[in-house]
Amino acid sequence: MYHEKMINTSIAQTLDDSCLYTRGFLLSVKRNALRRGVWFKSLDGLERSIINLTCAVVENVNSITLIREIMEIVLKLKNAAKGEFLKLTETIGVQRAWKVSELSFKWGNKDALFWRDDLIFHMFHAMIEINSPTGCRQ
């Protein structure tokens, strides 16, 4: 949700960030994915090969196309490593927080607009979703 913005960066920004995509960075991404058990579960053989081959051949990634592919793979691993609660917080929690804050603002609560950005409020609504009976879910 928040990370799609990173994929759509301009070419100039991507070139400036190319120093971030080094062999060391990619090896740490791979190591963390292996530790969390998402390397084989979330990536197919081609995606794993892209990371492995890049680590073996290149010290710094300079190709825009390769950087974009690596960004998508890294984001895929990052999303796969998230727990269910965090996923619910970012999806249902945020949606419900926006609805509740909008309704409360319409009823006259001026501070309700700040609830939209409150992580604890998002987590609260995710917890409500987890604990609600199956028949009550929308």
Can you give a write-up of this model?
- By secondary structure, the protein is mostly helical.
- The protein folds into two domains: 4-81; 85-136, no CATH class.
- Helices cover 69% and strands 0% of the residues.
- It has eight helices and no strands.
- The two termini are 21 Å apart.
- Mean pLDDT is 83; it is low at 1-15.
Order of helices and strands: HHHHHHHH
* Overall 3D shape: elongated
Stretches with pLDDT under 50, minimum 5 residues: 1-15
Q: How many DSSP E strands?
A: 0
Number of domains: 2
Task: Briefly say what this structure is.
The protein is mainly α and 138 residues long.
Fold topology:
Blueprint: H1 4-7, H2 11-16, H3 23-36, H4 39-42, H5 45-57, H6 64-81, H7 84-106, H8 119-131
Helix pairs in contact: 3-5, 7-8
